[in-house]
Design brief:
Residues 1-18 form the signal peptide. It holds the Pfam family LRR_1. It is found in: Secreted, Cell wall. The protein is an alpha/beta fold. The chain folds into 2 domains: 8-186, Leucine-rich repeat, LRR (right-handed beta-alpha superhelix) (Alpha-Beta Horseshoe), CATH 3.80.10.10; 191-262, no CATH class. 16% of the residues lie in helices and 24% in strands. The protein contains 4 helices and 17 strands. It has helices at 8-12, 17-34, 54-68, 195-198; strands at residues 70-73, 92-96, 104-110, 116-118, 132-134, 139-142, 156-158, 163-167, 180-182, 187-190, 203-205, 210-214, 226-228, 233-235, 237-238, 251-253, 260-261. The radius of gyration is 19 Å and the shape is globular.
């Protein structure tokens, strides 16, 4: 989980500013057309496969939309994202539901280190059973859509080493089950949100973005065992509230910054 190398210079040289702008434009256009999730979203998407399981049917819709939002997949990793057998897709992992062991759902999507170019479509918000979403080291651009707040079971979000932009994605703080948040090596900017340190997270990785923020007084409220926020413009005083973290905090990385303690 902790391996995410700063290979941005190599990764992004093949994606020009014009190409990035085009991807951003397409995502924002899709967001403006679809808005938030619709109850009848599946009727707006052509279903060319018979999928009896309603959970997998929704996942099929989401993955089909995501594949359409991928502009390059150099290694053809998602080449088999076409059949109704979602559990055979590369990077897609199924498990039985707790209520009915005979019913499978998609619980984990892992496309780490695949070098996919594209964006996250609004339809990802219907991945109701997803617990792990690992998308690090691709060339995913634009913003993290607000619709992923619907992912009530999402436990880990690893979006490290992409080209996401905008202010701190507050949608992550509305993910009820989230424990592991990794946003390293992106282009997020602006201030950190105080709600970040009030949320029951175990791991917070924000380093190597463009955040410009005062260190918040409630930092010590965090129950995280690891917090990494170096290589941002973080300033001000490191509150003595950090003393409240002695029973939980194992690693705190804040280098190349000057702080005073109070």
């Amino acid at each position: 989980i902790l391996l995410c190398f700063s290979s941005l210079s190599h990764l992004f040289l093949t994606l020009s500013n014009a190409e990035t702008a085009s991807i951003v434009h397409h995502q924002l256009l899709a967001l403006s057309e679809k808005g938030d999730l619709l109850d009848d979203l599946e009727f707006d998407v052509e279903i060319d496969a018979a999928i009896a399981n309603p959970c997998l049917r929704c996942t099929y819709i989401a993955l089909k939309a995501w594949k359409k939002a991928m502009y390059s997949d150099t290694h053809n990793f998602t080449g088999n994202w076409v059949s109704p057998d979602l559990c055979s897709y590369h990077g897609v992992f199924c498990t039985a539901t707790p209520d009915d062991p005979s019913v499978n759902v998609v619980a984990n999507i892992d496309i780490n280190d695949i070098d996919i170019v594209g964006y996250l479509p609004v339809e990802l918000g219907i991945l109701a059973d997803i617990a792990l979403l690992h998308i690090k080291s691709n060339r995913l651009c634009s913003i993290i859509p607000q619709n992923i707040s619907h992912l009530k079971l999402l436990h880990e979000l690893d979006a490290c080493n992409n080209r996401f932009v905008g202010l701190f994605p507050d949608v992550a703080l509305r993910l009820l089950s989230l424990k592991h948040l990794d946003l390293r090596f992106n282009d997020f900017e602006g201030a950190l949100l105080s709600a970040l340190f009030d949320k029951e997270l175990d791991a917070i990785f924000l380093n190597d973005n463009r955040f410009s923020s005062q260190m918040l007084d409630n930092f010590g409220n965090s129950k995280a065992s690891v917090v990494v926020i170096d290589n941002n413009k973080i300033y001000g005083c490191l509150s003595n509230s950090i003393g409240k973290m002695t029973t939980t905090l194992n690693e705190f990385v804040l280098i190349k910054k000057l702080f005073s303690f109070r």
